[in-house]
Write a structure and sequence with these properties.
With 131 residues, this protein is mainly beta. The protein has a single domain, classed as Lipocalin. The chain has 2 helices and 8 strands.
Length: 131
C-alpha cells in the first residue's frame, strides 16, 4: 500500500489558490491535500471558514472530483490537472457555481507565471472561464 501518490502533478502537501463567483472576483484558499490510492483528503481555510476535502483523482486522465465540507454546507469541485495545478468548476446544489484554481505551494518557480495566468483568467467572461 502506497503512503502518497508518486505522480508529480498530484503532490501531497500544502496548496493555495482561489475560487471565483465571476470574473474579477477572487477568494483565496489555503489547504493541504493528501493524494493516496486515487483518494483525496485534506483540510483548509478560506473567507467562508474552515473546511475539509474528500474526493477522487485519476492520474491516467489527469482529473479530480472533490467535495469541500464546511460546517454549514458542501461544495462540489471538478477539475483538470496540469503543470499549473488543478483548474475547474465548483457547484453548490446547481444554484451557485464558479471557477477555481489551486496549485502546490512548493512550485515557487511558477508563481509569477501563475499570477499572470490568474489575472488573465479573471479578466475573461465567465462563460469562457467555466468551459
Amino acid at each position: 500500500m502506497k503512503t502518497h501518490e508518486m505522480h508529480p502533478l498530484f503532490p501531497s502537501g500544502e496548496w493555495e489558490g482561489f475560487y471565483s463567483y465571476y470574473p474579477g472576483d477572487k477568494h483565496l484558499m489555503q489547504c493541504s491535500f493528501t493524494f493516496c490510492n486515487a483518494l483525496i483528503t485534506g483540510r483548509g481555510n478560506d473567507d467562508i471558514g474552515s473546511f475539509s476535502w474528500k474526493g477522487v483523482y485519476n492520474t491516467a486522465v489527469l482529473s479530480c472530483s472533490m467535495t469541500k465540507f464546511y460546517s454549514s454546507h458542501t461544495v462540489f469541485y471538478t477539475g483538470e490537472v496540469d503543470e499549473n495545478g488543478i483548474w475547474g468548476n465548483w457547484d453548490i446544489d446547481g444554484i451557485w457555481r464558479g471557477g477555481f484554481h489551486l496549485w502546490p505551494k512548493t512550485k515557487q518557480e511558477n508563481q509569477h507565471a501563475q499570477k499572470v495566468e490568474i489575472e488573465t483568467l479573471l479578466q475573461q467572461p465567465l462563460i469562457q472561464v467555466l468551459k
